[in-house]
Amino acid sequence: MHQIDLPLSAGYDEMLDAAQSVRPHYREFFDWLNAQTPAMLAQRRREAELLFHRVGITFSVHGDESGNERLIPFDTIPRIIPAQEWAHLEAGLRQRTQALNMFLHDIYHDQNILKAKKIPAEQVLVNAQFQAAMCGINLPHQIYAHIAGIDVIRHSDGEYYVLEDNLRVPSGVSYMLENRKMMMRLFPELFGRHAVAPVEHYPSALLSTLRQSSLEDNPTVVVMTPGHFNSAYFEHAFLAQQMGVELVEGRDLFVKDLRVYMRTTAGPKQVDVIYRRLDDVFLDPLVLRADSMLGVPGLLAAYRAGGVVLANAIGTGVADDKSIYPYVPDMIRFYLDEEPLLRNVPTWQCRHQDELGHVLTHLDELVVKEVHGAGGYGMLIGPKASRAEIEEFRERLKANPANYIAQPTLSLSTCPTFVDEGIAPRHLDLRPFVLSGNTVRIVPGGLARVALQKGSLVVNSSQGGGTKDAWILEA
Predict the structure, then answer these.
(1) Range(s) of the domain holding residue 353
(2) Which residue in 221, 230, 256, 393 could disulfide with 273, CB within 3.0 to 4.6 Å?
(3) Do 286 and 329 share a domain, yes or no?
(4) Are β-strands 259-262 and 253-256 bridged in parallel, bridged antiparallel, or unpaired?
(5) What torsion, rounded to 10 degrees, do the Cα atoms 34, 36, 449, 436 define?
(6) Is residue 310 a contact partner of residue 167, using CB atoms and an 8 Å limit?
(7) What residues does the Circularly permuted ATP-grasp type domain cover (predicted)?
């Protein structure tokens, strides 16, 4: 029998309540877990690592000059969410993604939200992610973010908060799918004891969403990758294979008469939808970054003419920039005339002098992030930082305050996790994936990321985090 440690702090634990009683939706799993031996669980973890190596589920670490690819640590203890909680999360994610798509259409057309002064115009129009070339382009169904990955956390108050919106090229869904496959292989008996909502249909839902984005009757869809040196190449190849579509690089495509074609052994084939997994600046060397060897010359002209659909749209990144994040609740109220169902984390914008003063005074209490940062880089976690790190970051803030936002250090919820010393609570978040086409579809669950170091709040795989299977229990 396993001895399970108590929560790290007074924060919210997903399995145990404040009285250290097992929450109702975890009782069945808790009983099963306590009946297992440490040796059996350790053996299952070794099996998972071996199988993931065989499949090739690896990633490369930003800044690692060795070029070695690593295995993302996989935890065999799932995060479990009851049906009623998921229903609330799902409704909030639908609402938020709808408002973000409406915002993107608006700022590239009438800019009503800017005229109404709900968001300062300079926050949008001079944003590095705003693409003026998109102004006036009418996209099918007015959808910009066909695929969104919304990062949510649960705070010590038990409420869910949105930590950030990922609308450019959100990644991680392949790990969600492979984690589920691994759990069903290692612990089939658990799925007989729990009514877990399936996730295996995500590739077909993604393909359906991509096809719906085109006005063609039977559109040809491809996945466009920067190449096998990209850290997420496994996912690009995996999704193309799962959807039954071609995986292409820029050199495999060309533009003729404002249409995009793919080179094949049978001759050119028209491409109608490109699920692109590279950033805006690399897409078209004729208009964007001239030295890009990854893009397709003339792609933007074909896109502007309606000759091809890009998912996600060019210029979508302005809506997930951290300097725009504080205004998403206002977008929901402005476009939908509704109150947000999911809360934002309170945010100070260092570009404002009074808010900068507050941040500088409370640096040891706050999390400070670069507005264009990602992957947990370029940030300060005040309570975990040394005095020297805080002072160094203070100088960065003073030198370029507009490049930063700050947020309180939230107490991310914990979940039992199998670590070297046994089973112990570790902090985690959740990234559900929202597909926007003729309808909005959300596969139940998402990528559950967990910080494997005791007390750490950084869940990113590139900084030592791991992943779990996320179970949504059906009612």
Answers:
(1) 346-408
(2) 221
(3) yes
(4) antiparallel
(5) -90
(6) no
(7) 78-451
Run of H or E residues at 472: strand 465-472
Along the chain (475 residues), what's the average pLDDT of each consecutive run of 10 residues?
43 92 96 91 89 71 53 90 97 98 98 97 92 93 96 93 93 94 95 96 97 95 94 92 98 97 96 96 89 92 96 96 94 98 93 90 90 69 88 91 88 90 92 95 96 85 84 92
Q: Are residues 391 and 255 in the same domain?
A: no
CB proximity list for 65: less than 8 A, separation 6 or greater? none
379's CB contacts (< 8 A; 6+ apart) are 367, 368, 369, 370, 373
Which residue matches tokens 């008996």?
A: 189
Together in a domain, 227 and 312: yes
8 near 455, Cβ under 8 Å? Answer: yes
* Same domain assignment for residues 305 and 369: no
Q: State how far the Cα of 475 lies from the Cα of 470, in Å rounded to an integer.
A: 16
d(CA 197, CA 423): 25
Distance CA 454, CA 465 (A): 11
Let me know whether 364 and 382 are in one domain. yes
Whether residues 128 and 264 share a domain: the answer is yes
Cβ contacts of residue 126 below 8 Å, gap of 6+? Answer: none
| Same domain, residue pair 266 and 216 | yes
CA distances in angstroms from 16 to 77, 158, 358, 411, 415, listed in the order given = 14, 12, 36, 15, 9
Q: Tell me how many domains the chain contains.
A: 2
pLDDT at site 69 = 61
The reply to whether 36 falls in a domain is: no
Say what the alpha-carbon torsion angle 315, 319, 322, 324 is, to the nearest 10 degrees: 120
The residue among 372, 446, 435, 360 whose CA lies nearest residue 398 is 360
